[in-house]
């Protein structure tokens, strides 16, 4: 029913604009144009220059036929060109596809074909794999691309070119667009990101301008980020569009400190040289910083980190506190734009012991301020579980910070949205204070003799041993118990410990049936964002063959 407030009060250009993070770039160029935006080796760009370069790229892409609904794929490390792509491509209403730089040619060709990429921007470091990729794309899928080569000044290797255009020359050819406009409809797709493959079945996750805008704002609100943060790119920007932080930094007039390679020495040197105050990373990167020589941390200011990408072990959270880093734990998935929940640190936690703080901070927490719903439900009945820390269900999200769906996969989209909520596949409990704690992925629960064993709980116990730098626990088939826990372990440099000693260590922390029956000291397969690929380890366990 229409009311008096609907009469002659229409949406107009004066009072309604589609939400898009592109608007943040225009504002920072207008208001903070003289302030630093990008640092990369010897290169420095202000916000006015960054906006100008992005608008030149947008003009060049438009001349190539890129428009609303076109896909522009990029194969780039964390460089200025990657930042500019995040600003230029959405400004045309086109869709940004950031490729995982560690994938093989066959999978890259499949993804480029699946998202119907029209243009590829690629860094010379990846010329060998992209040369093979483009050949496969042509021979297998019958598709050609317009290729733009990036010859980054910070890449020490050969600057091989695969395409018709060199990035800097292309920017010089075009006058910048008068304005980076953004979409007419905020529901328009802004990006397609392929799941990282921990299940072996990547899907094209389509996100929209509204969600990217709101999650960029949520990042700042969640982390209480001030204006002008100095942010180090330890997180790959190809992963969930850098958790929307390219746009958060634009909103705050911050400084992007680029980093081509994740290395503890390079990270800590960049933090000291540029007085970095914020960064994001998966647990494995934080572990690198904990284990780095103490002298590398000299000269650091107050550094705040976000950890996500995998459930962080309590030992890692304790370790970061010991070396003086302020760590916040967030949780999410590609389907919710990266982080969409946070373990909000309450003032009372500061008086708890380091061990208890690690337990509290290690939870997945509560929904982001601009996410409408997050809870734990029985996926069959869709009833919320009791907030008692014992009853387990599946974490589910609902709201504007949820994907549009999976590209060309309506069945998977419908299944993931069953009952009006996005189903994450993560099994968890709600603790009495309403904070959510993951117990495991549904496929990673080990059922031994009828008892459920959380692989995460066993991994937490292993991580508490000082010799363990990485571990993963999976089910091993057993004729008597059905399944038993099998642990794969990587040791810290120079550390020595036997399987029997680790088993004894676990017995001191866990019920007997949860203790690993076998420990294998082997390299653990990981994605480029640090997630452990348990599906590979499960296959190893089934074959009963040790590697290495």
From TrEMBL:
Keywords: Fatty acid metabolism, Ligase, Lipid metabolism. The keyword Ligase applies. Residues 457-531 form the AMP-binding enzyme C-terminal domain. InterPro entries: AMP-bd_C, AMP-bd_C_sf, AMP-binding_CS, AMP-dep_synth/lig_dom, ANL_N_sf. One of its GO terms (molecular function) is ligase activity. It holds the Pfam family AMP-binding. One of its GO terms (biological process) is fatty acid metabolic process. Residues 26-407 form the AMP-dependent synthetase/ligase domain. Belongs to the ATP-dependent AMP-binding enzyme family. This is Acyl-CoA synthetase (AMP-forming)/AMP-acid ligase II.
């Amino acid at each position: 029913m229409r009311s008096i407030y609907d009469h002659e009060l229409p949406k107009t250009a004066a009072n309604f604009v589609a939400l898009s993070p592109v608007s943040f770039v225009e504002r920072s160029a207008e208001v903070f144009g003289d302030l630093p935006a990008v640092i990369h080796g010897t290169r420095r760009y202000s916000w006015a220059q960054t906006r100008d370069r992005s608008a030149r790229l947008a003009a060049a892409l438009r001349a190539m036929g890129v428009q609303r609904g076109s896909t522009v794929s990029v194969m780039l490390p964390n460089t200025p060109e990657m930042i500019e792509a995040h600003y230029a491509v959405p400004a045309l209403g086109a869709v940004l596809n950031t490729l995982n730089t560690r994938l093989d040619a066959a999978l890259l060709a499949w993804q480029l074909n699946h998202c119907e990429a029209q243009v590829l921007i690629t860094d010379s470091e990846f010329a060998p794999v992209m040369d093979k990729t483009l050949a496969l794309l042509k021979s297998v899928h019958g598709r050609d691309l317009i290729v733009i080569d990036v010859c980054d000044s910070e890449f020490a290797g050969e600057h091989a070119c695969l395409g018709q255009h060199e990035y800097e020359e292309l920017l010089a050819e075009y006058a910048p667009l008068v304005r980076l406009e953004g979409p007419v409809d905020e529901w328009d797709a802004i990006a397609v990101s392929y799941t990282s493959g921990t299940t072996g079945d990547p899907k094209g996750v389509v996100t929209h301008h509204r969600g990217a805008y709101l999650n960029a704002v949520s990042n700042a609100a969640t982390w209480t980020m001030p204006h002008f943060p100095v942010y180090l790119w330890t997180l790959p920007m190809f992963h969930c569009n850098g958790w929307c932080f390219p746009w958060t930094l634009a909103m705050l007039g911050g400084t992007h400190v680029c980093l081509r390679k994740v290395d503890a020495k390079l990270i800590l040197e960049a933090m000291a040289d540029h007085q970095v105050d914020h960064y994001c990373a998966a647990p494995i990167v934080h572990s690198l910083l904990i284990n780095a020589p103490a002298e590398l941390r000299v000269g650091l200011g107050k550094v705040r980190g976000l950890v996500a990408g995998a459930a962080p072990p309590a030992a890692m959270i304790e370790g970061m506190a010991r070396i003086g880093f302020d760590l916040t734990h967030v949780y999410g998935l590609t389907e919710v734009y990266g982080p969409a929940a946070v373990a909000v640190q309450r003032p009372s936690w500061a008086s708890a012991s380091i061990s208890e703080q690690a337990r509290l901070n290690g939870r997945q927490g509560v929904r982001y301020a601009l996410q409408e719903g997050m809870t734990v439900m029985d996926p069959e009945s869709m009833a919320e579980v009791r907030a008692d820390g014992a009853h387990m269900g599946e974490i589910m999200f609902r709201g504007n910070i949820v994907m549009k769906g999976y590209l060309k996969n309506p069945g998977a989209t419908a299944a993931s949205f069953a009952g009006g909520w996005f189903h994450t596949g993560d099994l968890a409990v709600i603790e009495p204070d309403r904070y959510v704690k993951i117990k495991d992925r549904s496929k990673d629960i080990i059922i031994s003799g009828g008892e459920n064993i959380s692989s995460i709980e066993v991994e937490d116990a292993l991580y508490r041993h000082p010799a363990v730098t990485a571990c993963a626990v999976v089910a091993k088939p057993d004729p008597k118990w059905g399944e038993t826990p099998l642990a794969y372990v990587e040791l810290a440099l120079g550390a020595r410990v036997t399987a029997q000693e680790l088993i004894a260590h676990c017995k001191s922390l866990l019920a007997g049936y949860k203790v690993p029956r076998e420990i294998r000291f082997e390299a653990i397969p990981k994605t480029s964002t640090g997630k452990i690929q348990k599906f590979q380890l499960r296959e190893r366990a089934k074959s009963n063959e040790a590697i290495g």
